Amino acid sequence: MKSPLDRRFWLLAIAIAGVCIGVRRLPAPHSVAANEQREAGSGSAVQFVGAGSCSASACHNANFARGATGSEFTTWMARDRHAKAHETLFDERSARIQKNRQTATPAQDDRRCLGCHVAPEFGSASPSAPAYFKTDGVSCESCHGPAKRWLPIHHLDAWQRKSPARKKQLGMNDTQSLVGRAQVCVACHVGAPGMEVDHDLIAAGHPRLHFEFAAYHGAMPGHWSAGKDYARVNRARADGRDAQRGQAEFEARAWLVGQLVTAHAALELLADRAGDQKKTWPEFADFDCAACHHDLWPSRPKSKSAQRGRKPGSLSWGHHVALTPMSLDALRAPARAEVRTVLAELQKIMDAGPARRIPAAKHATQAAAMLRAAIARLDGRTIRDASLEVAFLQLVAEQTTRHDGPYDERMQIHLGLEPLRRALGNGPRAPTTGLSVREFDPLTLRRRLELPRK
Amino acid sequence: MRFTRSTAMWLVVAFAAPTSVYLGMNQTSFGRDWQGGVTGAQEKNPDQPRPERRHVGFRECVRCHNSGVTGDIVLPGGAKLALMKEQWVLYKEYPIWAEKDKHGQAYAVLLNERSKSMGKLLGVAEVHRDPRCLACHTGFPLSRMKPGKDGLVHRDLEKDLDINLGVSCEGCHGPSGDYRSDKVVLLGWMDPHQIAPKPPYEQAWRFKSPREKQSQYGFYDVRSPASKTKLCVSCHLGDVELGRIVTHEMFAAGHPPLPGFEVETFTQQMPGHWVEFSAKSKQVRELFVEHTKDELYARKAYKRDGLPRTRSMLVGAVITASEYLRQVSQLADEEVKSPVRRPAWPEFAAFDCYACHHELKSPSWRQERKPAGKIPGRPALHDWPFALARIALKNAGVSRGDVDAPFANLRDAIYRKPFGDQLAASKAARLAAAWLREKGLEIEKKPLDKDDGIAILKDIIATGSRETLDYESARQLVWAYNVIDKELRSEYPGAKKVHALLEPMGKDTLLLDLRKYRKATIVVGGQRRTTEEVDLHIVLPFVSSYQPAEFRKRFGAIGALLK
Fold first, then answer.
1. Contacts for A96 with CB less than 8 Å, ≥ 6 apart
2. Does residue A222 register a pLDDT over 50?
3. How big is chain B by its Cα radius of gyration, in Å?
């Protein structure tokens, strides 16, 4: 039980946090990461405790089977590549990247790298944070939030009864809901202002970011109970479902939610890049690599759908939002017609090439805000088979008509087909792609997806 | 004193031996009725603010320049009368142009399949009526083809031969008619250029200085390599102020890539419709050098064996580089006015196509090169305009430090961030262009000798065997080598062996060959015409398959032969 003193303390903290959020609400779009930081920080430095604090054998380091409760640390340590995120900064490629960027700072110490290769809040972490924290790579607190304030209490029964919002106020991110989970990923895997893999970085040798939440989620060696994930989905169903269907439906839902959260992150990033006159515009990393990076070839007749009203020579933008309207429909998200309209206008601006940055910033900001509102009201919403089927058929149609569209967009279509098909069980079937996230590499995939050139 | 046409004709004819051929020419068969049309009508248009000379049209030119005389005249009784010994003017300029020069197809291609498909993608109903296309695809002045509300010029212009014959006489030589209004009279060069060089030579057109011809009569100077190159690249690269801009949007819609330009190689491909000065008869050369006010040919400056083509190549290279930078500066400077809708910055067409347009693969020779702007991934300027310009400057004794100075600012401005710092880049490009222009004009004044030629050959080879060059730059070197080699008549040690190494390279990838075409039939203004279209299926794969290491190796082998 809490003492009255305790309660007063927390109320005060919440009040201060509330005031801070109110005062610091910026007209400019802000990132998920920045939001989290603001909400968790209450003005004081973010405080990490390090993965070592989670790894007591009685807590998360039990060394049971992969994914079992109690062996989260073990699973992450042994199997999850996030654990090597900092280590990779010591390798030859990282050294080359820094050399190309003309910077003398080694990658392992460069703040530009550490935001994603350690933790989003790394830059604002308290200077008293233990030095070895960096070497943990993307560890517990990178995703779950700085633990200084929740570490002593998160194992208590009372903690379990706290709402995700209250947990967040103490620094812990919501990773139970699909939305919360996806939001944690996109900060690095799509990017956020200040945490960007821009074209300069890519040209220096950094791999291009590709992201699709469900595929990445499936490829990550989970350190949580997948059964609970499936059960949560089943509970959300009005009609109740068996456990087997739970998995398929979880994946479908992950894909749909992932689409929206990813789109939101991409829009916020675009709004920031377009709105900040100091930033590069256009930022090539926003666009399909293959839009420019192809040998010049005698023009092949482009299908109407591939051109889709795009001005010739404009860069192909939009793979992160291309399937947003469809996903909103399938999830029966609120205000989806309005989002669709704003996105269509934004697409038009981006397709007019060279895109004008002020209207782009305006529309991207607007679309991001609307999407944010829609996402906030998403969790727990039921999905009907009928809407899944519509989404699936739409994807099949997109796959056929946009076969010569931009690579990134085709990638998103391909990756959605499989989870939706499986969720529909005996529903309509489409050719499966057989692609896994391991092949999520533009250099190999481009060849696989494309018809041979003549 | 104003010469009537017939007097002038008579004088020309009187000088050219024999005269009889021309006296028989039916002058009345070319009426002047065709001058009505668009040109005349627009001249009266009060909306036309700028005095511009009238475009007279090719019909007037062919009265003299279409004789096509190829052999001697056989007189009754079998004696032969030699023609055209003077060789100042060929008098068959028109047939050469009409039969061989692709400039004559410039308009017709606007009606081919590629152009139609471009129109569809660009949302232009008929590209052959779009001023942005006509600016280069016809020699008819853009100012005389006012577009209507739909942005397109009048449909009937398609039937006008002076427009639909593409880049014809006055496109490169300048509108030749007079301009007369209440306030201004601008004489054209049509009449004065027919004044023959007869003693005392004061009025003789031939001996007037190019500057006078240009400023007094609007006759473009195509004798000076600098001036000629500037004229050529106003289309072959572009010129914002003249409305000649191939935008990235046009390329993306299907416009063939503009190949790197080298004035002597391109001229040879036209082919030229003139006799090189050094090839003209001794008598006419001496008379010219004696009386001309052209400072490039005045007695002191002119040397017959001064490698004029090599010099033209070097001057052309520097001027091309200058013009390229001027274009970059214009594109980045929104204050620069253009008669057509100008693209916004960043205009990708200002940059090197292949900086972005290459397959992503690793390892690749591109990644082994030092990036142009220190930081990789920033759109880079074209390399090729500087490949020969550097050699030209070095040969002219400009030190490496002096060459680098104007470019240091430019590099900094262009590569400071992607697409450069717009204002700083525009300014730095403008200054570097002006500096290059000045150098080009200096180089133009100095005749070369055989040793210079061989030294430049060696420098070309050294550059090619030392540097990792992109496709277009490599091609510049091969072209330049061939220009010099030809002018030296291969009279240097090792020439034969070099040819054996160079020729296959030329054949497979690097030589400019406008004959790599496919024939097409196009209906233009109701007439069927055959055109030769660039076959991108042949040309573009060369660029993709080009291997700089291989090029370097071969140039290295050539270098060993020349030592």
1. A204, A205
2. yes
3. 24
B209 and B301 in a single domain? The answer is no
Q: Which residues of B touch A283 (CB under 8 A)?
A: 418
Residue B70 within any structural domain of the chain: yes
Structure tokens at B20: 């009889």
pLDDT for A18-46, tens place per residue? Answer: 444 443 333 343 444 444 444 444 445 67
Q: Distance from CA of residue B553 to its chain's centroid?
A: 32
Contact of B461 with chain A, judged by CB distance below 8 Å, is answered with: no
Locus of tokens 């090719």: B58
What is the pLDDT averaged over residues B402-429? 91
**What tens digit of pLDDT does each residue of A148-206 get?**
899 999 999 999 999 999 999 999 999 999 999 999 999 999 999 999 999 999 999 99
Which of A204, A282, A296 lies at the smallest CB-CB distance from B377? A204
Q: Is residue B391 part of a domain?
A: yes
Handedness of CA B244, B245, B251, B253 (dihedral sign): negative
Q: Does B262 map to a domain? A: no
Contact B362, B275 (CB under 8 A): no
Mean pLDDT of B313-322: 98
Judge if B113 and B14 occupy the same domain: yes
Three-state secondary structure readout of B426-473? HHHHHHHHHHHHHHHHHHHCCCCCHHHHHHHHHHHHHHHHHCCCCHHH
Same domain, B187 and B308: no
Q: Which residues of B touch A311 (CB under 8 A)?
A: 249
Domain containing B84 equals: 5-220
The DSSP secondary structure of B230-269, one letter per residue, reads: HHHHHHHT-BGGGTB---HHHHHHTPPPPPP--HHHHHHH
Give the 3-state secondary structure of B265-306.
HHHHHCCCCCCCHHHCCHHHHHHHHHHCCCCCCCCCCCCCCC
The pairing of strands B73-74 and B80-81 is: antiparallel
pLDDT digits (tens, 9 = 90+) for B12-33: 333 333 333 332 233 322 222 2
Same domain, B302 and B167: no
Residue B260 lies in a domain: no
Query: Cα B157 to chain center, whole Å?
Result: 25
The phi, psi pair for A56, rounded to 5°, reads: -65, 145
Residue tagged 């490009």 (tokens): B429
Instruction: Tell me the pLDDT tens digit for each residue of B257-288.
Output: 999 999 999 999 899 999 888 888 888 899 99
Q: How far apart are CA B161 and CA B157, in angstroms?
A: 9
pLDDT at res. B34: 19
Q: Which of B184, B199, B220 is the last residue before a domain boundary?
A: B220
Q: What does the alpha-carbon distance between residue B280 and residue A369 come to, in Å, rounded to a whole number? A: 77
Burial classification of residue A408, based on how many CB atoms lie within 10 Å of its CB (0-12 exposed, 13-18 middle, 19 or more buried): buried
A107: which DSSP letter? G
What integer pLDDT is reported at residue B392 of this predicted model? Answer: 97
Whether the Cβ atoms of residue A417 and residue A433 lie closer than 8 Å to each other: yes
Q: Which of B116, B250, B353, B357 to mutate to test the interface with A (most CBs of A within 10 A)?
A: B357
Lowest-pLDDT range of A126-130, A275-279, B145-149, B475-479: A126-130
- Hey, are the CB atoms on A295 and B251 less than 8 Å from each other? no
